[in-house]
């Protein structure tokens, strides 16, 4: 199977922009459906990338879009529901429609974005719905459709909504009450995730497989927030909340019209987002360290405080 044309669902998102750009560099012709042109328009500077307005939840529109494609990459995902049922629609029903449309259009290759720790029996609705979607995608693997799924831990990189969110919150608050401070995660660099997707497209060794993608080191959430404060040169009092207070904080924040954190996110954080194995060797990279990449986009750097943080957390 030689893959040349790839349709990327969710190509306008944070991870999507990196995946699309990596595919462009490798000479693939890429089709990106979008619902909001402003979010996608940056991609149009790449000559081999075509943007098309589409309702990807419409099975017929999906089928038409997939005609002539060699591969489909599904990166669509959400952390919060706007309307009840969004997790089911986006994480479960969409993968089912994607598989059906791949079959109908004769697409031979499907890469599916899952997440570490998800499972149909997960604690949160996010985990359960992502777990179901992953199972649907992998169950479709067979002779006519080669499927690979990826399970990254939290992903960091320029324009991430994780470290950058903490950076802006820390900027405005001298005292920072932090929920779920002991949640454990192993952040992975967005460029490494994009590399794994691009490298697996044409590699038969990855067909039917599921890969966990993590960076080199495990952190608690509190360590990560302290890291961001140190990089930004902000002296902040971070107050770790108890489990009960974390649950209450998440419930209250979940009532705000703009969602930063919900009770479902609090439940997700109860599961370690860490890998049980090193970064898969067949993708040919050493995963980038947070300490090397994040200071480049979380400016300004305050060297003495930042250096002290690195020294203290080195071991
Ligand atoms: N970021 C992380 O730390 C992380 C960690 C593990 C797994 N993941 C998974 O990686 C994938 C990409 O995440 P991301 O951080 O790049 O998220 P993102 O920036 O929010 O991008 C999500 C993409 O999905 C599209 N999308 C979301 N809801 C949609 C809907 N209802 N209908 C149509 N399109 C929809 C968005 O379109 P618009 O541009 O129009 O909004 C965007 O293209 C997701 O599946 C996520 O679960 C992310």
Question: What would you say this structure looks like, in words?
Answer:
This protein is of the alpha/beta class and 315 residues long. Helices cover 41% and strands 17% of the residues. The protein has helices at residues 14-25, 37-40, 59-66, 86-105, 125-139, 163-172, 190-200, 221-232, 243-253, 263-268, 290-297, 303-313; strands spanning 5-9, 29-34, 49-53, 71-74, 109-113, 146-152, 155-156, 175-178, 184-185, 188-189, 210-213, 219-220, 237-240. The strands form four sheets. It has a seven-stranded parallel β-sheet, sandwiched between helices. The protein has a two-stranded parallel sheet with strand order 7-10. It has a two-stranded parallel ribbon with strand order 8-13. Helix 1 (14-25) crosses helix 7, helix 3 crosses helix 4 and helix 6 (163-172) packs across helix 8. The radius of gyration is 20 Å and the shape is globular. NADP nicotinamide-adenine-dinucleotide phosphate is lined by residues 10, 12-16, 35-36, 39, 56, 75-78, 90, 113, 115, 152, 154-155, 162. The site of NADP nicotinamide-adenine-dinucleotide phosphate has 21 residues, from helix 1.
Distance from first to last alpha carbon: 46 Å
Mean model confidence by pLDDT: 94
CATH-level-2 architecture of the largest domain: 3-Layer(aba) Sandwich
Strands across the major sheet, in which order?
A: 3-2-1-4-5-6-11
Sequence stretches where pLDDT stays below 50 over 5 or more residues: 302-306
Bound molecules: NADP nicotinamide-adenine-dinucleotide phosphate
Number of strands: 13
Which outline best applies? globular
According to CATH, what is the class of the largest domain? Alpha Beta
Radius of gyration (CA) equals 20 Å
Major sheet details: 7 strands, parallel
What share of the residues does DSSP label as strand, in percent?
15-25%
Tally of structural domains? 2
Alpha-beta content class: alpha/beta
Range of helix content: 40-55%
Secondary-structure element sequence?
A: EHEHEHEHEHEEHEEEHEEHEHHHH
- CATH homologous superfamily heading of the largest domain: NAD(P)-binding Rossmann-like Domain
Treating each run of at least 4 consecutive H or I residues as one helix, how many helices?
12
CATH topology of the largest domain: Rossmann fold
């Amino acid at each position: 199977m030689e893959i040349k044309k790839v349709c990327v669902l969710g190509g306008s998102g944070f991870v999507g922009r990196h995946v699309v750009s990596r595919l462009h560099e490798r000479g693939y012709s890429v089709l990106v459906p979008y619902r909001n042109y402003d979010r996608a328009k940056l991609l149009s500077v790449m000559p081999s990338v075509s943007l098309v307005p589409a309702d990807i939840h419409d099975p017929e529109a999906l089928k038409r879009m997939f005609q002539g494609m060699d591969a489909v990459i599904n990166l669509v995902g959400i952390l919060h529901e706007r309307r009840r049922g969004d997790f089911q629609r986006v994480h479960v029903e969409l993968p089912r429609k994607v598989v059906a449309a791949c079959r109908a259009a004769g697409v031979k290759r499907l890469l599916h974005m899952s997440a570490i720790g998800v499972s149909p029996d997960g604690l949160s609705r996010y985990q359960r719905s992502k777990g179901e979607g992953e199972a649907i995608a992998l169950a479709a693997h067979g002779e006519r459709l080669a499927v690979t799924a990826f399970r990254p831990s939290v992903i960091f990189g320029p324009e991430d909504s994780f470290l950058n969110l903490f950076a802006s919150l820390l900027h405005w608050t001298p005292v920072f009450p932090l929920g779920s401070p002991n949640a454990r995660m192993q952040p992975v660099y967005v460029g490494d995730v994009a590399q794994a997707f691009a490298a697996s497209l044409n590699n038969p060794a990855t067909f039917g497989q599921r890969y966990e993608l993590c960076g080199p080191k495990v952190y608690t959430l509190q360590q990560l927030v302290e890291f961001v404060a140190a990089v930004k040169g902000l002296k902040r009092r971070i107050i770790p909340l108890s489990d009960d207070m974390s649950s209450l904080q998440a419930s209250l924040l979940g009532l705000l019209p703009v969602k930063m954190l919900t009770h479902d996110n609090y439940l997700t954080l109860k599961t370690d987002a860490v890998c049980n194995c090193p970064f898969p060797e067949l993708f040919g990279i050493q995963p980038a360290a947070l300490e090397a990449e994040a200071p480049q986009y979380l400016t300004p750097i305050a060297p003495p405080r930042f250096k002290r943080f690195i020294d203290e957390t080195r071991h």
